[in-house]
Amino acid sequence: MAAEAEEELAHAEVLELFQAALARLVQDPLLCDLPPQVTAEEIGSQVALEYGQAMTVRVCKADGETMPVVVVQNASVLELKKALRRHVQLRQARQGGVQHLSWKYIWRTYHLTYAGEKLADDRKKLRE
After folding, report:
1. Interacting residues of 43 by C-beta distance below 8 A, sequence separation 6+
2. How far apart, in whole angstroms, are the C-alpha atoms of residue 118 and residue 128?
3. How far apart are CA 91 and CA 101, in angstroms?
4. What would the pLDDT profile of 49-95 be if each residue is shown by its tens digit?
5. Residue-wise burial string across 37-67, b where 16 or more C-beta atoms lie within 10 A, e elsewhere
6. Per DSSP, which regions of 1-128 are E strands?
7. Contacts of 110 (CB under 8 A, 6+ apart)
8. E strand or H helix at 15, and its extent?
9. Which residues of 93-107 are buried (b: 16+ CB within 10 A; e: fewer)?
10. Strands 66-72 and 54-60: what pairing?
11. Three-class secondary structure of residue 54 per DSSP
12. What digits encode the pLDDT tens for the residues 11-57?
C-alpha cells in the first residue's frame, strides 16, 4: 500500500513537471496560439503546420460556427472525421460540456460537404 502511494505521488510529480514544461513550450512565438492546457498532440499539429506537413481545414457547422481542424497534407475523409472528433472532445472537456457524443449517430445524421459535393467515401483523399 505504501509503495502504491509513493508511485501515485511520483506520477503526480511527473505530471506536474510535464505540465510546467508544456506551459514554457507554449510561450514560444510559434506555439503562442495554443491554449494553456495544451496536449502533446496539439503541439505536434502546430509544429507540423509550421513545417508544411499539415493543413488547417475549417469545418463550418449549420449554425455558422467554424472549427479549425489540423490534418496531415495527404489526409483522407476518415482522418478528417477523426480529427474533428478529437477537436470537439477537447473543446467539450475544456468547457465542461457534454462528455459523450454518439459519433455513429452524428455521421449517420449529418455529413461533410465540400463545394456542394458530399464527402461520402471515407477512403478518398481530401486533396482530391
Report:
1. 22, 25, 26, 31, 34
2. 13
3. 13
4. 888 899 999 999 889 999 999 999 999 999 999 999 999 988 888 88
5. ebeeebbebbebeeeeebbebebeeeeeeee
6. 54-60, 66-72, 113-114, 117-118
7. none
8. helix 2-26
9. eeeeeeeeeeeeeee
10. antiparallel
11. strand
12. 888 878 877 877 777 677 666 667 767 777 887 888 888 888 999 99
Which is nearest to 103 in space by CA: 84, 77, 117, 76?
Answer: 84
The CA distance from 125 to 76, in Å, is 4
* Phi, psi (deg, nearest 5) at residue 77: -60, -40
For residue 88, the one-letter residue type is: V
C-alpha cell at 44: 505536434
**Closest of 67, 27, 32 to residue 46, by C-alpha:** 32
Residue with cell 489526409: 75
C-alpha cell at 14: 511527473
> Is a pLDDT exceeding 80 seen at residue 101?
yes
